[in-house]
Amino acid sequence: MQDPMLYKPHPSLFPATLLGGLVGTVILTALIRLLAALEVTVVDLPQLVGAVFSSDPSPVSLVGHTVFLALGVFVLPLGLALLWPVTPGDRFTFGGAVVKGALWGLVLFLLAGLLLPLLGALSQQAGGGTGQPGPFGVALGWRGPVQLLAGTQVYALASALVAQMPRGLQPLETLGWGWWSHGSGESP
Length: 188
Fold this sequence. Notes:
By secondary structure, the protein is mainly α. It has one domain (13-168). It has helices spanning 13-37, 45-53, 57-83, 94-122, 143-164, 171-174. The chain is elongated. Mean pLDDT is 81; it is low at 182-188.
């Protein structure tokens, strides 16, 4: 006897992309703070955003991180959700999520790279306390564009992979560990 087909509804992509945006923003912010703590010169996006709104150094960090979090959780995931159906890659697989995330990361790299000079020019801090990174962070040498590309890719890939999970992606199954969820507790 043949088993009946089960309908597995997929939840809406938009709420999942919001969660993915939160995860991506937390990871990216942690990486920026880690590099800054290691005294690596970094394109500090939250500081640049905060300097646009205040000249006083104390609220720059709070305002910058608040706006950075809002953009990363509520605005950018909307773009990913809208572009998801039209970007290359399968809509329901791990590989498709990686392709869509990588492409979204390139879009964010171009957008951020072009906005960096504007953020530097609008900075209200005396002497440009956060520095003038220039387009794509080239004022930091080769590290600026590499950091910007790596940061946007980390954010976008984390967002896309988390957004894909409720749609049937099981991270451990993609590694070949499908036995973990079958209740036996033992590998085949």
